[in-house]
Amino acid sequence: MTDPNHPTILIIDDDAEIRYSLARVLGSRQYQVTEAASGEDGVARVKKGPPPDLVFLDIRMGGMGGIEALQHIRAANPKQLVILMTAFGTAQTAIEAMKYGAFDYVMKPFAPEKVLALAANALQAHADLRAVGDYKPTVNTEDYKEGIVGSSPVMQEVFKIVGQVTASDVTVMVTGESGTGKELVARSIWKHSHRANKPFIAVNCAAIPDNLIESELFGHEKGSFTGATVQRIGKFELCDGGTVFLDEIGDMALATQTKILRVLQQGEIQRVGGTETIRVDVRIIAATNKDLEAIVKTKAFREDLYYRLNVVRIKMPPLRERIDDIPQIVDFCLQNLVKNKKARVGKVSPEALSVLTRHSWPGNVRELENVIYRSAVIAQGDAILVKDLPAELRETVAAAAEAAAAAEPVTSTPPFERTLLAATEGAVLAKAQLRAESIAAGAELPLTLERALDFVLMEMSKGAAPILPRVESALIARVLRAEGGDQAKAAERLGLTKAALKKRLAEPEAGA
Ligand SMILES: Nc1ncnc2c1ncn2[C@@H]1O[C@H](COP(=O)(O)OP(=O)(O)OP(=O)(O)O)[C@@H](O)[C@H]1O
Ligand SMILES: [Mg+2]
């Protein structure tokens, strides 16, 4: 389906009035409707593509008739969903229609609700079939534990909690920004739990309209509402023994929340329009990228349900808080792309990798994944280079580098010496400030000196040679220079006796 939220429907009929009224009825819902005034034109449109998600096709038309058009359409696109329209119903037309692969047929004149129900059913069937077609047994694909990459301390914490909750059926709430891997973690819990051989069903509470979500979750009885032409089994019943993943739980309507609470408390559901109480055994994992506590405060989310769901909380850290994981994730994405034959490029240049680690990734791992995919597809050699990365990424990083260069004009000074220079300058400045203000003993160091020390400590952490002699000799040299070589004045400023300064100057220079 092109856009699952806005399916496309093509109406083929030579009667302008029928087209008009049908388009109005269908257009009142989320469908995108187009029209063709003849069989020939309709067939041409399906052939040209992209094919519509559903076709309403009139049987009796001047020129190419409906059955012939249906044959052409199905020849061009065997999966095309077609509903035939006829002014008179006979067994003959019904059989013909179904024989040539129509999904259904409808008699004119038709009631708007009938047309809408037909369209909805057809599209639902279409989606269900596709879901089956796309299904791959997860047990055979790579172990999900390996599907989650990350050795950063924050991710190690996540893995630990995942491991702890797999042994029980405890309800888990996964929170975190969009694209941080909430669903991946939910699947990982399922995969390692004793329910691994039972289904994992994900329901996106934000994507399903409020009036349909209950039917989706709990099912409905035939005739319980307009369009409920057959009984439907809900996800909870289908998932018996398994794990239900309630994604975007913060968007769930209050009425549905009450029913979820009942599942959690009593392990029971009722189909919409039904009276029978059905026992279900499911584990629930919920996820949200919203601030659920805030929603509870506004009373749009039940507090009791919140506590029921929030027994164990897994907070997915944003990617910018685990940049050390980026190289691994990139590698993992590339390997997958190559394995699935979506790209040939399996490597990334160190420069490109460095650009990737400097981006802030508001869309988190999903954004990174997309960038890798895009870049791998356009890369020509056997590695992704900086030029292959999206322009926005290259620009932000280039701008940052430029700003850094502008702030530090002394480019010829080697990095360590530059840091030291900044540090000693800061220290000298701070010392002057100290004297001027004659700060009471024990007072905190001024900010500038703290900053200078930060620089020095930063150098130390890089494992350079012992830092104190280097700092000291650099500071002495600077102060001496500032005092025009006057050792007495320099000693005074440094807080040393003249003899002590002389002794230090006589020592062979350490390090620097
Ligand atoms: N640690 C990871 N290692 C490898 N791939 C990851 C990792 N985290 C996320 N991904 C991948 O990133 C994509 C987004 O992950 P997922 O769908 O689980 O995120 P989400 O938090 O549910 O996002 P949203 O809130 O948008 O639904 C998926 O393709 C997933 O496989
Ligand atoms: Mg998700």
Radius of gyration: 34 Å
Mean pLDDT: 81
The percent range for strand residues is 5-15%
N-to-C CA distance: 68 Å
Low-confidence regions: 132-146, 409-448
Q: What ligand molecules are bound, each kind once?
A: adenosine-5'-triphosphate, magnesium ion
Question: What count of helical segments does DSSP give?
Answer: 22
Give a brief rundown of this model.
The protein is an alpha/beta fold. It is 50% helix and 12% strand.
Question: Keyphrases for this structure?
Answer:
512 residues; alpha/beta; 22 helices; 16 strands; 50% helix; elongated; binds adenosine-5'-triphosphate; binds magnesium ion
Describe this structure in words.
The protein has 512 residues and is α/β, with parallel strands linked by helices. It has helices at 16-27, 39-48, 66-76, 91-99, 112-134, 144-147, 153-165, 182-191, 210-218, 235-238, 254-266, 292-297, 303-309, 326-339, 350-358, 364-378, 391-407, 415-437, 447-461, 467-482, 487-494, 498-506; strands at 8-12, 32-36, 54-58, 82-86, 104-107, 172-175, 200-204, 219-220, 232-233, 243-247, 268-269, 278-279, 283-288, 312-315, 347-348, 383-384. The protein has a 5-stranded parallel β-sheet, sandwiched between helices. Helix 14 (326-339) crosses helix 16 (364-378) and helix 21 (487-494) packs across helix 22 (498-506). The structure holds adenosine-5'-triphosphate and magnesium ion. Magnesium ion is lined by residues 182-183, 247.
